[in-house]
Amino acid sequence: MTREEVLEKVNAVIQDVFDDDSIRVSDETVASDVDGWDSLMHITLIGTIEDEFDIKFAMKDVVGMKNVGQMVDLIMEQLD
């Protein structure tokens, strides 16, 4: 899976979790850019991402994620 494909899949998951098909994310997207993305929704999103990609994030990675680009990088690392 290419990085672009991972980003597209992450975007689709975010649209689903936040029930908003108009959301478009990029590497620079941060939680405050998406309406409703608070700490509780972050945990929901992480769980859904883990299920979709069949991966598990370390807690330090979950806490340290600053933007969608970092999330995609962590997914890519686990898919290798």
Q: Can you give keywords for this protein?
A:
Non-ribosomal Peptide Synthetase Peptidyl Carrier Protein, Chain A, mainly alpha, globular, 80 residues, single chain
Task: Give me the secondary-structure topology.
Layout lengths: L2 H15 L21 H15 L5 H6 L3 H12 L1
Helix pairs in contact: 1-2, 1-4
How would you describe this protein?
The protein is an all-alpha fold. It has a single domain, classed as Non-ribosomal Peptide Synthetase Peptidyl Carrier Protein, Chain A (Orthogonal Bundle). Helix content is 60%, strand content 0%. It has four helices and no strands. The protein has helices spanning 3-17, 39-53, 59-64, 68-79. Helix 1 packs across helix 2 and helix 1 packs across helix 4 (68-79). The longest helix is centred in the N-terminal third of the chain and has 15 residues, at 3-17. The model has no long low-confidence stretch (mean pLDDT 97).
Quick structural summary:
By secondary structure, the chain is mainly α. The protein has helices at 3-17, 39-53, 59-64, 68-79. It has a single domain, classed as ACP-like (Non-ribosomal Peptide Synthetase Peptidyl Carrier Protein, Chain A), CATH 1.10.1200.
Largest sheet: none
Tell me the CATH topology.
Non-ribosomal Peptide Synthetase Peptidyl Carrier Protein, Chain A
Whole-number count of domains = 1
* N/C terminus separation: 9 Å
* Global geometry: globular
Counted beta strands: 0
**pLDDT under 50 segments (min length 5)?**
none
CATH class membership: Mainly Alpha
Helix/strand/pairing class, anyone? Answer: mainly alpha
Under CATH, the homologous superfamily reads: ACP-like
Strand content: under 5%
Residue-averaged pLDDT: 97
